[in-house]
Amino acid sequence: MNQLALISLIVLSSTLCQLGSSLSPGRCPQTTEIDGGLNLSRYLGKWYEIKRTDLIFELGLRCVKTEYTVESNGNVAVNNTGVSLINTQVSVVGTAKPGTQSNVFAVSFFQFSPSAQYWIVDTDYETYSLVVSCNDVLGLFNLKNAWILSRKPNLDSDIVDQLVAKLKAIGVETDKLTTTAQDCGN
Ligand SMILES: *[C@@H]1O[C@H](CO)[C@@H](O)[C@H](O)[C@H]1NC(C)=O
Ligand SMILES: *[C@@H]1O[C@H](CO)[C@@H](O)[C@H](O)[C@H]1NC(C)=O
């Protein structure tokens, strides 16, 4: 990689960090399986975003929801919707491809774009889901993002606290989490 590319990457990474992604030295943590494996059919459906590390493409978005449906080829279609700062409904559709671990997918939102890791760290299917995406940067750093999702537009604060503690244990800088406003009704 040439120097310019390296500098651009560092600038990009630090911008992402200021926005809330968590950049740490070293490689991504080893993903762990969910007890008994992920039951995808139970995981499908609609989830409300309760907290997130802010990503560029999510800046200012409120009422963010994600809907997962299974495609005939076994991939999972991801439909993220939200309401922008100027009150328009936005949606972005992606694909999650299953990997060797039942709870780790490779998600891409644009054709030919590099895919990002989508690791369902913990879920009880009916109440909450904890998702981490970690990607290695140059083999030197790793960039983590995290989402706390709920089946309802709100989530019990005790559960949120437990999930935040789990994120901390994984090495996510939890002070970078922001709360997503869910004030649009259902
Ligand atoms: C997954 O969940 C569905 C619906 O609750 C259930 O019918 C199915 O047996 C479960 N699959 C496994 C492998 O546990
Ligand atoms: C994504 O969900 C939104 C809101 O439910 C819907 O309007 C849109 O048509 C969906 N997009 C796709 C491709 O299914």
TrEMBL record:
Top-level division of the source organism's lineage: Eukaryota
GO cellular component: cytoplasm; extracellular region
Signal peptide: 1-22
Intracellular or extracellular location(s): Secreted
Major location category of this protein: secreted
Alphabetical list of InterPro entries matching this protein: Calycin (IPR012674), Invtbrt_color (IPR003057), Lipocalin_ApoD (IPR022271), Lipocalin_CS (IPR022272), Lipocln_cytosolic_FA-bd_dom (IPR000566)
Transmembrane segments: none
Positions of the Lipocalin/cytosolic fatty-acid binding domain: 38-182
Entry's family note: Belongs to the calycin superfamily. Lipocalin family.
Record protein name field: Apolipoprotein D
Organism: Tetranychus urticae (Two-spotted spider mite)
